[in-house]
Specification:
With 404 residues, the protein is an alpha+beta fold. Helix content is 16%, strand content 32%. The protein contains 7 helices and 20 strands. Strand 18 and strand 19 form a beta hairpin. The N and C termini lie far apart (52 Å).
Amino acid sequence: MKKLSLFSVLILAVCPLQAAQLIRGPYIEDPTQTTMVLRWQTDEATPSWLEYGPAPRCNQIMTLTPEATQHKAILYGLVPNQDFCYRIYVNNTAGDGVQEPVEGSFRTLYSAERKVVNFLALGATGADIPLPLPDGTPVPDEAAQARTQLAALMAQENADFLIHTGNLTHSGLNEDADREFFEPFRPVLAKTPLFVALGPNEYGPDRENRDSKSFLRSNYSRYHDMSWSNATPKYYSFDTANARFIFLDTNVAEGAVWGPEIAENSAQVKWLKSMLSSAGEKWKIVVMNAPAYSTGTRGPNNEVALNLIEIFENYGVKLVLQGGDANYERTFPMFRGEPNPRGVTYVTLGTAAPTPQKRAHSDSSTARFVAARHYASGKIVDRKLTLKVYNNLGKELDTVEIYQ
């Protein structure tokens, strides 16, 4: 057992001890230049102890989370552009101390003078367990294997944060989140802050029913913290270095009756225009689930295309990361429906776990299409953005360079 500070020993002395196991996390969300949120879950109600500090001095500050199964620590007073490390302690099985700590790290967001950003992106990590054959023979769970492979590759990357284009689980249910997301991607989530663009699965299978309002709150909102806005977690934005990332909720176009509207005078579109117009010379990158351009099996979402494409073009968006279709696809820069160097590049990151689907039709917008499970690694250096895409075996599928 590692030695704890006097502060933690005193806490252990006054708190009732029960054995507990970490069953979810830790995972990191809602980073800013000076704050961070860490979450984790235990199988039994217990207090937990979190110590953290600027790397490699991980024991500079200690905080306590009260006895519970859901644990959340908000870290204040951090420093921009800084790597931090942390350790989380829970009680041991003997009830006379704490277990070996679970360790992790994170990086605060960059201040405006920085010109380098590194990020990871993927989508659709949800896929159900395959049913056995009629004779009872089990079918290999290729989705589970792909998640493990992708997570191992992503954990080797030096990323500032992770973008998810939506559909964390196949059902939207929290009960499936550990198997389909938190457990396989644990090595990544323990050190890489997470940002999610809600997909239709987050609204549940009955999202077209007016009685479905509580589904998102019960299965998603209570477990996640995203950057604040009037509609968090549905849509929000954050700035880091010379970039602004804007996350939209396009699920009203997927039948989610409780999703925010995307029509011209809707609150979300007014907010989007405000976020884009106030971004100045920053990179403007949009993340959403429903694709505006797609030649995959599901194809483009026409409502999204009609309402949002022209806004992206008029306000200088350079890259849109989207989900919705089970494939990887990249468009040429598109402007007014045609390939044009001044336009917007759309990248579909739609299958980390589901079975990849083939291209359904051709279109002049498509620069690259691959039916494969994949993730993307992005890097901004001043006025150049490079996005590399790899499959679950580490093979490079595509590279694109975008200039501001």
